Amino acid sequence: AAMRVAVVGAGVSGLAATKCCLDEGLEPTCFEQSQDIGGLWRYTEHIEAGRPSLYPSVISNTSKEMSSFSDFPYPEDFPVFLPNALLLDYLQRYAEHFSLREHIRFRTTVVSIRRHPDFATTGQWSVVTEADGKQVSHVFDAIMVCSGNFSEPSLPLHCFPGIERFQGQYFHSRQYKHPDLFQGKHVLVVGMGNSGVDIAVEASRVASKVTICTGRGAWLLSRVFERGYPWDMVFSTRLMSLIRNSLPGPLAWAWINYQMNQRFNHENYGLQPEKSCLVREPVLNDDLPSYILTGRITIKPGVKEFKENSVVFHDYAEEEPIDIVVFCTGYNVSFPFLEESVVKVENKHASLYKHVFPTHLQKHTLAVLGLIKPLGAIMPLTEMQSRWVTRVFKGRRAKGSSAGCQNAVQTGHVMFGLSFDEVLKTEWMVYMDTLASFIGAKPSVPRLLCRDPWLALTIFFGPCTPYQYRLGGPGHWEGARQAILTQWDRTLKPTRTRVPASSSSSFPSLLTVVGFLLLLAAVIFGF
Questions:
Q1: List of domains in the chain
Q2: Hey, is 358 helix, strand or coil?
Q3: Smallest Cα–Cα separation from 424: which of 284, 522, 280?
Q4: CA separation for the pair 308, 306 (Å, rounded)
Q5: Is 349 in a helix, a strand, or coil?
Q6: 3-state secondary structure of 125
Q7: pLDDT tens profile 481-495
């Protein structure tokens, strides 16, 4: 009989997990507590308990070609960066195309997942779900946890002396929907992640003053990168990754520092990260630099203390009047349905092999997906995790490794920080390549060079789009080569609307010259 797999959640990761189970001949049942798919990307005006909450203006931080599932490109007329409604539309098309809905049970909450009494021999799990007030028990052969990590806000008020005296309004960014409440007010945004900067920018259009305070600073990237190309299509190429990972530590940091400061000098804007060697996740925002220049937004250091109607910052003597505080202090990772002994989360860290498998279980039949924040698109990444996990569940051996996946899981032990501090150590492409090599789906540039030179060059110099991982191995997709060779056409079609779009060069010409010299190095590196 087919192996029965329970998938918790029908967001981006849950849909990919369900689809990969079907690809591998497993029998998935996906449990979704709300009434529809989409997870984080399904906007609702009211805030639902235990569900992520979006504000209407959210736009994807990664471009459509870099963030598509690897065998399902976005429609060519979709914009390059996607408003949340279009991203949800894409997920619905994906679910439709691969007939995923029939495997999803909506309005069903997973109450508990416990090891079955004979877990040591079978690896099975006892799952209790609840729908319409009735609880049902099931037994599954494996579990894929896709419940996300944007549901439980982290609001450490004890870190903000005097907040109990503060008479204004304060709330966590999860509560934010529309900027109207900031009309004519003095607003303080605490924290400088993507939400914090988005909310500050929106608030500054109606507020009388907006201040962002950050203890650590942050790198700031724009979606519009060199020569107007999408940032990730320039940043995430095999050539760039090779350079970044081949340079010795200090040189690599100097190079990243140089790259990040090319558009504008972070120090002049009060943004330079505190410790340059600990690079946090860069913030993506196109407006912040000009809003700082025009005085709409001011950057200050961390909060020292709150007074009744004002705030005092570190290294500043004077008080600043404040009416509203938005705490953009992130989220806690929690798995309320799991025993703590299965996935232990301490200080936002979980001990997971390759960020997926709990290391101490006798049988590797439980996987956590999407609990990683790389500098790159999450969709193809959770899909790659699912492709690997479903093959581990089937007990297939990892290609090119005598130990096989199960042994690798048993011996590897990685403490994984959710604090972004090591984001560049978990580089998107390196991680994707690692998992792809486990299942034999990593493209080989040197081998392709002899067989299909144009494709090989496009793969090496061009953006590392997810289709590269469907050229061979299990899950091979016939359309992968064509998708790669037409990726720039799909990128330029929605913007070249005044003049007909001619086929564009797949990569900037200067890189071609430099790249040919580096390709030799690449072959030596076995890239």
A1: 4-151+332-433 (3.50.50.60), 155-222+263-329 (3.50.50.60)
A2: strand
A3: 280
A4: 7
A5: strand
A6: strand
A7: 999 999 999 999 999
